[in-house]
Amino acid sequence: MHGAITRLAGSRYTALMAIAAILLLLPLVAPSLFYLRIATLVFIFALAVLGLNLLMGFAGQVSLGHAGFFGIGAYAVAVGPAHLGLPAWASLLAGAALAGFIAFVVGRPILRLRGHYLAVATLGMGLLIGMVFTNEARWTGGPDGMPVARLVLLGWTARGTQAWYWISGVTLALGALIAINLIDSPTGRAFRAVHDSEVAAAVLGVDVARYKLIAFVLSAVYAAVAGAYLALFDGLVTPVTAGFLRSIEFVAMAVMGGLGSIFGSIVGAALLTVLPQLLTVFHDYEQIALGTIMILFMIFLRAGIVPALAALIERKPP
Amino acid sequence: MPEFLQFLFSGLTVGAIYALVAVGFTLIYSSSDVINFAQGEFVMIGGMGTYVLSAAGVPLPIAALLAIVIAVAVGLLLHRLAIEPARDASAVTLIIITIGASILLRGVAGVAFDKNFHSLPPFLGAEPWLVGGATILPQSVIVLSGAGIIVLLLWLFMRRTLYGKATLATAANRMAARLVGIDTSRVVMLSFAISAAIGAIGGILVTPIVLTSYDVGTLLALKGFAAAMLGGIGNPVGAIAGGLLLGLLEAFGAGYVSSSYKDAIAFLVILAVLFALPQGLFGRNTIERV
Q: Which residues of chain B lie closer than 8 angstroms to A295, CB-CB?
């Protein structure tokens, strides 16, 4: 993993250029809008996974509750226009700010915990947020969810697959750019120091609690923006958006793509978004295939797809 | 007062199941450091397996026994095919493997059994007993005493048999256990088998009260995990106490505060406990070497 990180630092913008290339070329080769729709979903999930990767891959803290933040973003753009009369873009910003604020408030006590305790605390936090969406039916429509109004920017209405393909793709590139620069900054080095050894980092004068909190808040904001995009793209939001399985999906995407690899987040998101689409052919066997693939990847490609491939190219054992 | 008793009974019944799931978590965790998120699936296999077999004409006791055997076989396969090949992987990797296994097992159950809700006939009749103005189902008594017997047997196994002592030694210090000649990989295998059996028995006992379906495992695993954490993971007594406490909190919370936030109360308490006592109620303070 250290190898992957140094390589990443060596060619900082490879991942970004790859994203830009995919973004520009895909519309030229995609046979139908369906493919762009899938790509849009990949971009949206990749954005959330990118944030989670900052937390897990760089700062070394696990979260099994990020669907909660994703849900806050999604419900913000649903509830804001419908109940508070806010425009969608303002609701999106408010949702991202709210997710960041909640992460800031709960982050300090939660991030004191380690390992499995941190896992169960974040899991509980995610479930609690999800329960609010299910139970506050007056605001959220309860288990059935609620419709989401279109995003209107300066008189232009964002509707349809093409519009959201570009919005989510450009945002993902922007998110990757921010992440790449952050990783290369003193903050990013502090993240990695905390990841490698909290004690050693503290001895060197790194404020461990503060940097964990920064990573947590950042990842929450990434997730909330992604959630808002998904809700605006789908035009509908339900509690499943913020469910436990979504949290697991994010973690699986980050780990399968490769922790500590920016491009890995996108590969992981693509894999777990495209696979179920291919597997719908098998209807009943979809879950069986998904579970099997998760197990096989974790056994045979433990470092994640992108770092393992990078090691292969450099002819080093993964 | 009858109201209080009513909540107490239902809380203890549900808590007994959480306790059994939590004990399963604890057994596997203490011998291998793996958090097995497929633990709830054993409960599902117990309930669904018994229902499907008895619906096919197998007498209930034999159906139940077969379901336990199936669960144990699944537990052993899980260990052999998914956990053992990833022995030295990180905790997060292992968590994803067991979650993958849980999704896989749910998928298999959806195909092999069906996707409907099912129940079993109560073992001692459905007529509730009156105790102090509250009613208690005979099945609840069976669940509670069944859980008690399982815990007792487990305790005897741990203290009185060579295999049990090997398990304890492995939990205490894996390296030292290996040095004195204990085959720790066999111990881990054994703990998967026992956890699967405990989960399946819990599933069979509780199905007449709470229904079962192919996807009940996830929530049970979450609650069991939370219960194990509440008690301090790796501590069997803590797991039982954590499970019962969680069941009681849910029952009283649902009864006196809000039934729609029943699950929330449980997780709020867990968060509070973790903040105040990061090692759980009964956990030892672990000292980390740097």
A: 81-82, 97, 100-101, 104
